[in-house]
Amino acid sequence: MSHEEVINQLRHLVRRLRWLNVIQLIPDTLVIYGILQLAFSSQLVTLFNASFARRQAVMVTVMFALIDLCVTGIRYNDRLAGKRLISQLSGRLTTPEAELIKQFERFK
Questions:
Q1: How far does CA 91 lie from the centroid of its chain?
Q2: 65-88, pLDDT tens digit by residue?
Q3: What is the pLDDT of residue 91?
Q4: Considering the entire predicted model, what is its pTM?
Q5: What angle do CA 68, 71, 75 make, to 5 degrees?
Q6: Which domain holds residue 30?
Q7: What are 52's strand-pairing partners?
Q8: Nearest to residue 32, comparing CAs of 21, 42, 40?
Q9: How many structural domains are present in the chain?
Q10: Residue 43: what pLDDT?
Q11: What's the chain's Rg over C-alpha atoms?
Q12: Are the C-beta atoms of residues 107 and 79 closer than 8 Å to each other?
C-alpha cells in the first residue's frame, strides 16, 4: 500500500472510531438502565414502559450487554487495524499526518 493509501485508510478509521464512540454510549446506557431497573424492582420489572417478569428482564439486559460487547469488539478490531496501518508508515510525516496519528492514539 502506498503512503497516501495508508493515510486515507487511517483517516477513514479515525472517522469510524469517532462514530463508534458515540454509538457505544447507547448500549452502555441500556445496560446500566436494565441493571438499575432490575436492582430496584420486585417480581415485575418495567423496562421502557413495558412490564416483564424478572427472568425476562434479565434476558433483555443480557442482550443489551451482548450488543455492548459486540460494539466494543468492533472498536478493538479497528484499533488493531489502525496500529497495523501506522506501522506501515515510514519516513518523515507531514504535520497533518502526525496530527492524524495523534488523533488515532487518543482512542482507547
A1: 31
A2: 999 999 999 999 999 999 999 998
A3: 79
A4: 0.83
A5: 135
A6: 3-106
A7: 45
A8: 40
A9: 1
A10: 87
A11: 20
A12: yes
Q: Which helix (H) or strand (E) holds 73?
A: helix 54-88
Whole-angstrom distance, CA of residue 101 vs CA of residue 108? 13
Give the burial string for 43-66 (b: 16+ CB within 10 Å, else e).
Answer: eebebeeeebeeeebeebbeebbe
Return the closest-CA partner of residue 61 out of 72, 46, 71, 74: 46
The DSSP-derived string for 16-63 is HHHHHHHHHHHHHHHHHHHHHHHHT--SEEEETTEEEEHHHHHHHHHH
CA pair distance 44, 38, nearest whole angstrom: 9
89 vs 65, residue with greater confidence = 65
Task: Write the pLDDT tens digit of every residue in 25-57.
Answer: 999 999 999 999 999 988 899 999 999 999 999
pLDDT at 1 > cutoff 80: no
